[in-house]
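hey so i finally got around to running the thing on that chain from the lab meeting. sorry it took forever, my laptop kept dying and i had to restart like 3 times. anyway pasting the input first so we r on the same page abt which one it is
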Amino acid sequence: MIPIKTEIRSNQNLLEYLREKGYELPSPCGGKGICGKCRVRILEGIKTLAMPYTGFHEITLDEWEKGWRLACKTRLDEEMVIEIDDLWNKEADILVSGNYDVNLQPYSRKIFLDLNKPSISDQRSDGERILSELGDAEYLDLELVKTLPEILRDRDYRVTVILFGKTITGIESGNTTDKHYGAAVDIGTTTIAGSLINLNNGDEIGTFSMLNPQKNFGDDVITRINYTIEVENGLKKMQGLLIDALNQMFKYFEEKYQIPSHHIYHVNVAGNTVMLHLLAGLPVKNIAVSPFLPVINQMPNIRGKDLGLKINPNAFITAAPMISGYIGADTVSCILAVDMLKNDGYSLLVDIGTNGEIVLGNKNGLIACAAAAGPALEGAHIKCGTGGIKGAINKVKIGKDGVNYTTIGNQPAIGICGSGIVDAIAQMLQSGMIEPSGRMLTASEAELHVPGTLASKVGEYKKSPCIVIAKQEDGAVNDIFITQKDVREIQLAKAAIAAGIHILMKEMNIDFEDIERVYLAGGFGNYIDKDHAAEIGLIPNALRGKVVQVGNAALTGGKMLLKSVRYIEEANQIWNTTKFIELSTRLDFNEIFVEQMEFQRL
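ok and heres what got predicted. didnt touch it at all, straight out
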């Protein structure tokens, strides 16, 4: 626990104050007082401690009397001494892997020129001298031309030209062709992952990952969009968080691998439409309301200096096209990575994150939809849920002898992440602790219908059943349990994904047997047990044997785009041939959604 003495800030709540001071607290609801995650303990503060118990916000009367409060609902009208839990500042376990094979042909190039020196018989201008060697290349801007005379004469007309396509982006003294790097970055709603690539040989130098710092302002894109609308300079703040995160990545690469950041000349960014808009500083308010329109579908020409990125100032920042307000460049990158548009047979891509993107099709065309699964499958909106950080329960085994689990990093359990939740619910269904309707057995019912060891794990939380996964007395940091409300959250999330799959199949007029493979992408999709996912109906049971877990396919696609110009053309082809289905306009969506709520094999 971290003790902190606060100041008096009459117009500020405690959550905003702690963020200002650099402390991180989870706030999936964006400070609305709904999720109950931003808990702090008040040690000193007469007025706050004397407040009557409200009975809300996931804090029990016993906890309230011990000083526990929600930071977002606590006003700083007096000095206080508080404690915040440092459990949330743990290292995240973020997926950065994925398989691919690319013939190196990067869009960014470095060419060394040993130019003929000017003379009375050769009075070509400095610019013409370079252009004649390069053919159809062109200058970038006036700023570059101003530096040209000094650079050419500094190394006796031996220079290295940096090109992005046919555009000259820089000229360096001497031969610097051996210093040519790029970065592929996946900006997810929850996590950020990146890879440093040697553009001369395609080697991956190293990787970096972190939680998206915007996560402290809300777990889903709608909450963050609302932040840009409701908070003064909210858009600028959201953009600044991403810029700072990327600069942290580049600094890590420089210090870890001794590669100066100014030798990074191309960054390809995968991300959903909202994340890319926030990175570019573009307004996102219209994505949240019908007809859910982004400002752009193609990223404009952006250079490092335009965003304040600490890389080569003229480095180009690119991204695959965005299909719609909720199907972004990350989905296009995933499609590219698994080669969906080249397959004769039908394949299904499911990228389950805070938002669920689903794509179905073959070489004749693709259709896509976004299912509002919410962040429950990543541990948010779950009473004891957490992201994929050290100490998160990631695997659960329920048998006649009781409940066993593993944690990320083999650390004491602090909560349960998405893969652990899917494991637990699937096996609670198998054991009869949960009915197909999602109703949990009470303790008295469990004593009659499940083995005694398992029955002893059934408790009560807020007058509803809960099932204990880990106890503090056995080494967990806190008691960790799954509540009836948690089960309902998972039902809503899995029903949204399953309904999206069924509607795309209906639109394509195909059956399960027509689908040859199912690609599960993303960190959650990579780590979940695919059989348990089928058991709860997240993936249709008929497709269970066709599932292929493809890792961080968005980052993989980003690396492909970074390394070869041919994939830029393919990404544009994907964009042009993918039809987007807006589920909210489908008259059959609600009916299918309700059908998929039950835990049953389909």
